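Colleagues,

For the teaching module next term, I've prepared a clean inverse folding example: a structure given as tokens, and then the sequence designed for it. I'd like students to try predicting residues themselves before seeing the answer, so please don't circulate the second half yet.
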């Protein structure tokens, strides 16, 4: 990254056009606010700024210019997808990725078994192997 160039916060998100997530599980959290750009929504989601939960995704209403930050994503139980022409869904890649990049220290995905079907060892465990 060059001097004076800012990284686009949308690079950390996967966009799905014309889709909104509806929470069936009422314990899942959502916060909304008027914002002019998806970049502003992404930056706030990445920093969890002003949110009482970890932001895993956001939906941007192009008509009302309203950002909906979500404590869940399309892989979360208790969530259903809804086609909606007004919305674009942006999901944090770290939470929907099914592969490990590098050493995997930042992996937040849902895969917890090896390719051969063996249960993965927890990061905070030294059993059955030391790190």
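(Answer key — instructors only)
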């Amino acid at each position: 990254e060059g001097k004076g160039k800012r990284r686009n916060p949308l690079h950390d998100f996967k966009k799905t056009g014309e889709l909104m997530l509806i929470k069936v599980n009422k314990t899942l959290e959502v916060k909304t606010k008027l914002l002019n750009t998806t970049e502003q929504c992404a930056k706030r989601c990445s920093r969890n700024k002003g949110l009482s939960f970890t932001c895993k995704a956001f939906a941007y209403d192009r008509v009302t210019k309203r950002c909906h930050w979500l404590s869940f994503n399309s892989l979360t139980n208790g969530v259903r997808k809804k086609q909606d022409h007004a919305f674009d869904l942006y999901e944090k890649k770290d939470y929907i990725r099914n592969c490990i990049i590098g050493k995997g220290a930042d992996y937040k995905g849902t895969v917890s078994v090896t390719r051969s079907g063996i249960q993965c060892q927890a990061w905070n465990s030294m059993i059955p192997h030391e790190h």
